[in-house]
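Q: Given only this backbone (297 positions), what sequence would you predict?
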């Protein structure tokens, strides 16, 4: 039998997120890493990728566009301000762009909520690490209750927050709020990101507060448990650390520890968005197989 074709993949950006993504792609059964593209050959991330034996190039998006064969999927792990340019460059090639920056340009996707949307859109936005950690839970509660207000507070260790994220802090907050609004239907939403210099570095965590009607322990806890189990199917370090309900208020806290070997354990913020991006890309690859088989017959 002819072996199933793996989808060709490029990674744009060689920071902590980009290098970890590249390693995850190499280990995938349905994705084939073709290139890790950075903006400068001297960057430590690109040099690290080269030491790992990964194919690298240093001309950014141009390196990916000028490949002999168009890529099936590109992960954009660069900077939100450049994403529109990257999307425009790749659009004529038919490449699916999975955006890990908070640009809010493409279709926002949270794997356990609307992961199948990758089949209908060429530009997929993975929201933010806080969005990936919070949306599944607040959406589950909002679907079963009338919710008037949602607040999410993400706390990340300073060592896990790279230059790109620091440049995009406003976009991070706005995109996270937009995602909570879109997936819950609640309009009164506030999202906060705290970057802590604590030593030892604090494990990434997100606290969620919801105000609404009909909230009880019996109605909220099973929803939180089920939503968390779904997230844990691709992000093993995801854990609920608190779930309390008092009168009209529900409070849920989660911690995310990284289980990847390229990211420190405390940097669950990086691991969860990478794991979410890999989940939707592999879903796309798996869904494409029968389509390609029919086209080839």
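A: Predicted residues:
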């Amino acid at each position: 039998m002819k072996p199933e074709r793996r989808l060709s993949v490029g990674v744009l950006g060689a920071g902590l997120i980009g290098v970890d993504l590249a390693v995850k792609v190499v280990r995938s059964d349905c994705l084939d890493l073709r290139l890790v593209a950075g903006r400068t050959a001297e960057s430590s991330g690109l040099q690290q990728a080269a030491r790992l034996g990964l194919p690298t190039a240093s001309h950014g998006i141009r390196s990916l566009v000028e490949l002999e064969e168009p890529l099936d999927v590109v992960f954009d792990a660069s900077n939100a301000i450049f994403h529109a340019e990257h999307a425009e460059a790749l659009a004529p090639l038919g490449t699916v762009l999975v955006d890990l920056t908070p640009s809010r340009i493409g279709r926002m996707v949270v794997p356990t909520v609307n992961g199948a949307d990758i089949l209908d859109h060429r530009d997929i936005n993975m929201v933010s690490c806080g969005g990936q950690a919070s949306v599944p839970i607040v959406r589950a509660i909002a679907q079963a209750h009338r919710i008037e207000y949602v607040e999410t507070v993400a706390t990340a260790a300073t060592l896990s927050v790279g230059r790109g994220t620091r440049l995009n802090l406003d976009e991070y907050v706005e995109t996270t709020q937009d995602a909570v609004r879109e997936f819950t239907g609640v309009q009164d939403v506030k999202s906060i990101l705290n970057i802590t210099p604590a030593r030892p570095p604090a494990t990434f965590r997100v606290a969620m507060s919801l105000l609404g009607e009909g909230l009880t322990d019996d109605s909220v806890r099973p929803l939180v448990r089920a939503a968390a189990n779904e997230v844990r199917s691709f992000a093993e370090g995801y854990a609920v650390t608190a779930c309390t309900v008092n009168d009209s208020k529900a409070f849920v806290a989660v911690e995310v520890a990284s289980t990847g070997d390229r990211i420190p354990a405390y940097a669950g913020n990086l691991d969860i968005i990478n794991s979410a991006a890999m989940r939707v890309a592999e879903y796309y690859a798996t869904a494409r197989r029968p389509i390609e088989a029919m086209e080839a017959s």
